[in-house]
Amino acid sequence: MEGTDSVDLRTTYLGLQLSSPIVASAGPLTRDLAGAKALADAGVGAVVLPSLFEEEIIAEEVGLSFALEAGSEHFAEALDYFPTVSNFTSEADRYLELLEEIKKAVRVPVIASLNASSTGGWVRYAKLLEEAGADALELNVYRVPTNPELTAAQVEEVDLALVKNVCAGVSLPVAVKLSPYYSAMAGFAARVVAAGASGLVLFNRFYQPDLDLETMDVVSKVELSRTWEMRLPLRWIAILRPQLGAGLSLAATSGIHTGSDVVKVLAVGADVAMMTSAILHSGPRHVSVVESELRSWLAEHDYTSVAQLRGSVSQATSLDASAFERANYLKTLHSWTTAEHLVPGPD
Ligand SMILES: Cc1cc2nc3c(=O)[nH]c(=O)nc-3n(C[C@H](O)[C@H](O)[C@H](O)COP(=O)(O)O)c2cc1C
Asked: Whose Cα sits closest to atom 22 in ligand 1?
């Protein structure tokens, strides 16, 4: 076994050379300079800033045009009248400033993020993010299609128009962060790539509302992920990697907490493994723990580099090609034994 220091962790993501495949995904820790610096010091290969939301940009523009129409002498009054507008005002400017600051302070690539559900004039903000120095752009397409009049095909068309619009507006590489709820995931992923995406980030983690039974209020609460949630991106990256080709960048997000989790997603073909919950739970230094677990695993199993591991267990190379598909459903259900499950496991 070689020493762990000699293991080469470099990877390429969205055309960027990263020193490590462990990336800090969009979240509260990349929302300020200190957090981004701590993550870079702990060894992440790149940081993704939290998203600038379509709603924030639009609200800002509504506020601005209202103020222009009302005349500058009435601006303060207008903001009092529309408190939500005043809250949003300048969110985009703050975001651009933060991006510039972080870019100056860290040596790793900085990926800006836009969160959207429809195309529109606000899309020009993608260009502003590029001008502010972003190395790449992540477009988070986040929607819950509740309109019963809309078909899956119509919803997909709107998403594809958005992807096309953003990709056409910038010369930066764009990664699209998708939800796992498309009915024809493989076909849709291929169309997102055809629309101009250089990468896919799989998957968006939706926060499901709960009910407070005392007040009967709908409660929205962010829960950190558990490691088993990693199996959904694991499956889809294994399926999509051989279909979409080695040139496309794939990022795994959701449930990645340990070095073993990183090994698994790289093995099925991810270029990077993204973490938010684990870092929120254990702090930025957790990145160096995960990195050293990754190094140890690679050295113990005689891998000299991440490149050697990447994609070695995709659906195309797996001895049991059906393992990632439906065929294993029956086998998995039949594998349940009551005795084995009497004691609950950690997850
Ligand atoms: C508190 C919190 C804030 C987040 N903010 C964003 C965001 O602004 N944009 C985004 O694309 N994802 C956001 N995410 C999602 C994460 O980037 C990540 O995809 C998700 O948490 C799953 O990864 P994990 O299991 O490592 O947490 C957020 C997650 C958390 C927990």
From this structure: 254
